[in-house]
Structures are given as C-alpha cells and as structure tokens.
TrEMBL record:
Signal peptide: 1-21
Record-linked SUPFAM superfamilies: (Trans)glycosidases
Protein name, per record: Glycosyl hydrolases family 2, TIM barrel domain
A GO biological-process term: carbohydrate metabolic process
Organism: Daejeonella lutea
Gene3D superfamilies: Glycosidases
InterPro entries: GH, Glyco_hydro_2_cat
Pfam families registered for this protein in UniProt: Glyco_hydro_2_C (PF02836)
UniProt keyword list: Hydrolase, Signal
GO molecular function: hydrolase activity, hydrolyzing O-glycosyl compounds
Keyword Signal appears in the UniProt entry: yes
Domain (Glycoside hydrolase family 2 catalytic): residue spans on this chain: 156-282
Length: 352
C-alpha cells in the first residue's frame, strides 16, 4: 500500500470498529493499562535460534536445542532485552503434544534464567504455504526466510474441517500455561491475510480469539496490525486485542504517524516487528522514539543464522555472499556484534 494512503486507511479502520463483532471477555482499557504499568519498558527481539531454519526445526524433538537457545538468550540479556517473541507451530504439537509442551516449558526456563519474558505466536500467514513434519530443508543461499512455513498453511487456513484440531492445539497449550508468569502475552495470529490470503484468513482469526478467550489466561491476547488497507481484519484485531500490537518497517516519520493514530484507541501498545536497515527502519532512528512514547519495541532478528534474515525480503543474493547492509539481526552466530554502535544504543536505553 502506498504511504500516502496509510493515514486515511487507519482512520477508516477506526470508523469501522463498530462493524466488527467483538468476542466476550476483552480486557477493559483500565485492566490493560494496569497490566502494562506493572512491567518495565518492554523491548527485545523476534527469536529463533541460529541453527533452526523455521519453527518446526526449533520445536521438534530431534532438533530442539536448549544449549544454543541458552547461549543466544544470554547475548540478548547482555543488551538488557527483557522480551522475546517466539513462533510456535501446530505441526510440532500434532507430532507430539506432551513433548511439545515440555519443550515449551524448557524454553521458558532458559528464558527466565536470563530474565526474559516470552510472547508466543500461534498462527502465521507468511512465507511457504505447506509445512512438513520431520527433517527440514537446508537454507537456499541468499534468500530471506527460504524455509519458513505458514501455520496452518494454505489452503489449510480456510478449510473448516481443520479447525477442530487447531482448536484442541490452542486450548491445550494456552490452558497448560494459562497462569505462567514467564509468558508476557499470547500473539494469536501473525500477519493474517499475508501471502495473498486476504480476508480468507478472517474466519480462522475469529476462531482463534474465541478459543483463546475460553482458555481464561492470566496473560493478555492480541494479534498485530500490519497492513493498513485490510479493513475487515484490522477492525476485528483492534476490537478484540487486549493490548494493541502492530508491525512497522517504515522510516520513523511515517512510523510515528501510525503509532500516534493507534494511540487514539487508548490502550497500551507494543510494536512486535520493526528494524529493516535498508528500508530506513533502524535502531538509531526508531528505538528511542518508541521508548519516548512508552511503546514496547520488538525488532526482527537476534542472531544471524539459517533463516537468512540478514538478506532483504525482495533482494536475494544468489551466491549467498554478505549483503552490503544486513537487513535484520544483531549478532553473528559466534556471538560477535554486527554493529557496536547499535548495541551501545540498546544498552544505553536499557540502562546497562
């Protein structure tokens, strides 16, 4: 969507809220603000260990690697990061429900050791349409997220016969961890409508909010806004999220206009994706702004690895050579810092 249309689209979204059926149980604004005030400024990264190409490789029993997770979350702690956003996958649960929940618990124990809370993400409309249980593919050189898989996939996301199994997954996981203070928030659906799905994702989006409410968790729930011309999806997400979450990879002058309009909804806010260096969304120009506005800040990427997110979405480098500027990520896989000026700023803002 063209930038010049962003503001009018957000205003249209706000005007359309009364058309979106709101599920029961949404937190009041007062409860949401009280919850937010109980936490230090929320900041951190989207996290997947450097040796996992996707969510399945992170969570399946054969490739779950708490040692790498421990090492890399230690680097996050050194910056003062206090929150990681972490994707789950329903196929890893389907393969082994008890083991999957056990591995989630082990992950949470490691994160808690490093004084890091977790935002868990359920469904996702981004990248490859179909995931397969078992050994995952090797990265394609120079291609951003070449092995990342949607959840539940396409066309599975719109086939209602899949919903009972997905309902069991969501309710079981959320019920199991419903009182766990190590979990900050449940992010129910990443970028609904992406990958050309558009409003076909709306039925599943509505269902996952319904299932999540029935779990009666202590943690708030949300689904992040990300594309301003998705009127129906945006209206439902705003009307049903306890905390407003959103993505913005734009330059700071446009990002600030978006966040100021979203602030009119009078709820706490967390930007759960930002920081794309070649699009002029950087730590230097965006992170101080978010802190000044008391908005949580979760950048994309901690450690460069098999996801290839040092490469831009739309600019593959077929020989796999280093890009002139990394698109995302902060650390090399061996713990070296990509740009010390950035980590110095993050530490300063976190009083480290």
């Amino acid at each position: 969507m063209k930038i010049k249309n962003v503001l009018s689209a957000i205003l249209l979204m706000a005007l359309s809220l009364n058309l979106s059926a709101q599920t029961n149980g949404r937190w009041s604004a007062e409860k949401a603000k009280k919850w937010y005030a109980e936490h230090a400024w929320i900041n951190g990264a989207n996290f997947i260990p450097s040796n996992a190409i996707n969510q399945l490789e992170m969570w399946q029993a054969d490739t779950f690697d708490p040692q790498t997770i421990d090492r890399e979350l230690g680097w996050a702690e050194s910056l003062g990061f206090n929150t990681m956003r972490v994707y789950l996958h329903s196929l890893a649960y389907k393969q082994d429900p008890a083991g999957f929940k056990d591995r989630m618990g082990k992950y949470l124990a490691v994160a808690d050791k490093h004084r890091i809370k977790t935002i868990f993400v359920f469904f996702d409309d981004c990248w490859n349409k179909v995931g397969v249980i078992g050994k995952q593919p090797a990265p394609q050189p120079g291609i951003h997220n070449s092995g990342w898989v949607q959840d539940p996939g396409d066309p599975a996301h719109k086939e209602s016969e899949n919903f009972p199994a997905l309902e069991k997954y969501v309710k079981d996981v959320m019920g199991h961890f419903s009182k766990d203070k190590r979990i900050l928030l449940w992010d129910l659906y990443n970028e609904p409508g992406n990958s050309g799905k558009l409003d076909t994702s709306l039925p599943l989006l509505k269902k996952v909010f319904e299932w999540a409410r029935s779990a009666n968790t202590d943690q708030p729930i949300s689904a992040g806004l990300w594309r301003w011309d998705f009127e129906k999806l945006n209206a439902f997400q705003i009307a049903n999220s306890d905390i407003i979450t959103y993505h913005d990879y734009e330059a700071p002058e446009w990002h600030k206009r978006v966040l100021m309009l979203l602030k009119t909804h009078d709820r706490p806010m967390i930007c759960t994706e930002y920081m794309a260096r070649t699009k002029n969304s950087t730590f230097a120009n965006t992170l101080p702004m978010l802190k000044a506005q008391n908005i949580g800040a979760i950048n994309w990427g901690l450690v460069a690895g098999k996801t290839n997110t040092i490469y831009a979405w739309d600019t593959p480098i077929k020989d796999g050579s280093q890009p002139t500027d990394w698109f995302h990520d902060i650390f090399w896989p061996d713990g070296r810092i990509y740009r010390t000026a950035e980590t110095d700023l993050i530490k300063k803002l976190n009083n480290k």
